[in-house]
Design a protein that fits this description.
Length: about 220
């Protein structure tokens, strides 16, 4: 849903990428630093109720993590391991955000229900990402999506930050919306792969059925 903003963000970050390209900093170092900082900020600040500060720390490191792909292209160091590392550590950072919120709801937010919703968002987000990765490994496209990673982070971090500023009900509303959107996206992807698999099976059966020799 937010793919249209990516060219704008790329142009905005180009000067930073150009400056980083003149340093010894590697794309993988940015990936590790960005996700480690995001995880540390979320798990250290959210459980103690510092929702706004935690969100600011997370946004800073999310921005740093956004630079790794562009830096790899500029330096000419793109590769499969870098893509694998980025995708894997992204899951760690995302899980840290929702785990930190779940802990806060148990310790200070006094809502086990919302803690469960935050954990559901964590698990559903992992399932959404896994479904696409597994589908693509099997040769299916699986491009359907309502709540991909960008949307999940935007909703989760923004509503947490606003809650930290005292805006009432925004974080519970955001988590419920995110839970529903993530579940819907997972269902979308399962159905899309089911349709593609059925179509591929029908095409294969047709090819086998039409391969006989004429009499």
């Amino acid at each position: 849903m937010l793919k249209a903003l990516r060219p704008f963000l790329a142009r905005l970050l180009n000067p930073v990428v150009g400056a980083l390209a003149r340093t010894p900093i590697t794309p993988n170092a940015l990936t590790i630093t960005g996700n480690a900082g995001m995880s540390a900020g979320a798990l250290a600040l959210y459980p103690t109720g510092h929702l706004f500060a935690g969100t600011m720390v997370c946004w800073f490191f999310v921005t740093a993590d956004m630079l790794d792909g562009a830096l790899a292209r500029v330096k000419g160091t793109t590769g499969n391991f870098g893509a694998f590392l980025d995708s894997t550590l992204d899951r760690v950072g995302d899980a840290s955000v929702f785990a930190g919120l779940a802990i806060w709801f148990v310790l200070g937010g006094h809502s086990r229900l919302l803690a469960a919703v935050a954990l559901f968002c964590l698990v559903a987000g992992l399932l959404v990402s896994y479904a696409k990765a597994r589908a693509e490994a099997l040769g299916f496209r699986c491009d359907v999506e309502v709540a991909e990673r960008t949307e999940r982070l935007l909703i989760g971090l923004t509503t947490a930050g606003l809650a930290g500023l005292g805006v009432p009900y925004v974080l519970p509303a955001g988590l419920w919306v995110l839970a529903a959107a993530s579940a819907f996206t997972f269902g979308q992807r399962v159905l899309a792969v089911r349709r593609e698999a059925a179509a591929a099976g029908a095409a294969g059966a047709g090819a086998r059925g039409g391969g006989g020799c004429p009499e």
